Amino acid sequence: MNNSIAEPMQPVPYRIQGFERETHDTFTLELKAADKVSQPGFAPGQFNMLYVFGMGEVPVSISSDPADPESIKHTTRVVGTVTKAMNTLKPGDTIGVRGPFGSSWPLELGRGKDVVVIAGGIGLAPLRPALFELLAHRQRYHRIILLYGTRTPRDILFKRDLKRWRSHFDLEVYITVDRAMGAWQGNVGVVIKLIPRAPFDPSNAIALICGPEVMMRFSLEALQQRGIGNENIFVSMERNMKCGLGFCGHCQYGPHFVCKNGPVFRYDRIEPIFRKAEV
Amino acid sequence: MKTLEAPLREHPFFQGLSDSHLETIAGCGRNIQFTAGETIFREGEEADYFYVIRHGRVALDIHGAHRGAITIETVEAGEIIGWSWLVPPYRWRFSARAVVKTRAIALDGRCLRGKCEQDYQLGYELFKRFAHVFSERLDHTIIQLLDIYCENPVKKSKR
After folding, report:
1. Helix, strand or coil for residue B140?
2. For residues A51 and B159, what is the distance between their CA atoms, to the nearest angstrom?
3. Is the pTM of this model over 0.95?
4. A142: three-class secondary structure by DSSP
5. Would you call A180 an interface residue with chain B, using a CB distance cutoff of 8 Å?
6. Would the CB atoms of A187 and B74 count as touching at under 8 Å?
């Protein structure tokens, strides 16, 4: 990955170190550089282009702890031909990697403030490195609150992390599912519903949001009703990314390229185009 | 004797109501407690009450053949459950059960309907608040119906 400046379009071979099934349709790949190249670090919120040889290349969020760049993890859902092929990879197999690309969660802006992390579905994956980093420097922040919504209890990602984070007294975790049956005793309802009652000070908070755009749209409204300014809200956008360098234009988003200027945007900078269906 | 006006005044649903309206509403209410797992009301039954949740968590369930109870929403302190008492034929659309020990104020819908008929200002104030609840639940229902966490079929072919 440290070839991203010299040969940014050339994938570097990485070995699959581990494969973990997260839910029925999501999985995490743990990667290590196949050659003796030093693995570059990454910032929370960035992504890599993963190339399954003979199948194609897709952008996948980095979901591991940035303090441990030797063991870089990517979490994705099986949604198409490339991720379907990726889902069949085993430890020892090789995959091509380009990156890391894109902007990151501006955690330094949360110093001395409450940090509200709002994740929907697979959107928890790019926020997980941010949570690792926030907890690694816990004293820098006031309250840290995670609001996580997903489809059903069986779709909950990173269950071990969530269980551990819930046992922390310095991280408040609220989980909700859109529907539930059987033994589920937790919240049922959309993640937006958690925002009005989340214990944070809107005048001294930043919010990080990642999830489907409909969920982000309603979350933004709920945050604005609580009184958080648009300049303190950060969203991670998803578009069809190809080159990762802002050259090809596939991921153009108004005047921005999501792969280069994003995926993390300060909301007030994209507000004029955020609700435009044509963009 | 403690009246219900104070807890009603503190509850977000009733914020901004005049003292006289709160007194009228409190006259139709009583404190009630449910143990974990207790059924509060069942789908199809007569809807004579609505509940102001003070502590705990309530699940709203709908029953489907061969699917058992599907929880469509949970409601917690600061929220209310039940608007079927406002809309003929005054039957519950869902079932409700306490997920954990729950304390609430039960407000008699028949009593309140009578008071609203006598005092249209009170009726208007209550309907404004229920309209807000309807609007929020409609938004939430739309999001749930969209099944937004499901894979995006547009991207399915490649990614």
Report:
1. helix
2. 11
3. no
4. coil
5. yes
6. yes
Tens digit of each residue's pLDDT (9 = 90 or more) over B97-149: 999 999 999 999 999 999 999 999 999 999 999 999 999 999 999 999 888 88
Bridge partners of residue A175, in order along the sequence: A148
- Rounded CA Rg of chain A: 18
Exposed / middle / buried, residue B126 (Cβ in 10 Å: 0-12, 13-18, 19+) = buried
- Closest CA of chain A from B82, distance in Å: 16
Domains and CATH numbers, chain B: 5-146 (2.60.120.10)
Angle at B123 between CA B121 and CA B128, to 5 degrees: 95
Amino acid in position B70? I
Residue range A62-83, pLDDT digits in tens? 999 999 888 899 999 998 999 9
**Chain B CB within 8 Å of residue A210 CB:** no
Measured CA to CA, the distance from residue A65 to residue A82 in angstroms comes to 25
Mutation target among A156, A187, A226 for the B interface, most CBs of B within 10 A: A187
pLDDT at A217: 94
> DSSP readout, B68-97?
EEEEEEEEETT-EE--GGGSTT-B-SSEEE
Contacts of A176 in chain B (CB under 8 A): 74
B143, B147, B155: best to mutate for the A interface, most A CBs within 10 A:
B143
Closest partner residue to A179 among B57, B71, B148, by Cβ? B71
Chain B contact for A199 (CB, 8 A cutoff) = no
Go through the domains of chain A in sequence order and give each one's CATH number.
12-101 (2.40.30.10), 107-236 (3.40.50.80)
The pLDDT value given to residue A5:
52
Q: Does B69 touch chain A (CB under 8 A)?
A: yes
A164/A155 Cα distance (integer angstroms): 18
Res A71: pLDDT: 84
For B105, counting Cβ atoms within 10 Å of its Cβ (0-12 exposed, 13-18 middle, 19+ buried), the class is buried
Residues in chain A with CB shorter than 8 Å from the CB of B140 are 189-190, 192-193
Q: Which one of A83, A155, A188 has the shortest CB-CB distance to B149?
A: A155
